[in-house]
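Working notes for the structural subgroup meeting. M.R. asked for a predicted model of this chain before we commit to crystallization trials. I am recording the input and output together here so anyone reviewing the notebook later can reproduce the run.

Input as submitted:
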Amino acid sequence: MKKIIIINGPNINLLGKREPEIYGNQTFKDFFKTLQLKFPNIILEHYQSNIEGELIDKLQDVGFNYDGIILNAAAYTHTSVGLGDVVKAIETPVVEVHISNTFSREEFRHQSFISPSAKGVILGFGLQSYELAIQSFL
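Returned structure, recorded in token form:
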């Protein structure tokens, strides 16, 4: 059985409340339940933190013994050399995910420190971006 973890960065805990015109009205917790039902043959876990160092620690912790990591580093995507470095350092493949199309937003969101070391990047499909990322590991 494949073991995949979704790691979310800052403000993803506010889904359902935060800018619904960009991020929708559903909480991640509710969406995660639907993912678990859709993929019953996968051990699917979820972790979220607003703190960069905690995200790095979690990636180091799971980066050598999981089958896949889905990483939505949110705003840290565009600012964190440390997250980019840890994605490069671990063995577990990482798919970078974004709910919005970052290229249709502010210029600073067009840069990613994660993409160069990621297996792939999925963005702009709303919460379905996570489902597409899971399918990439199957």
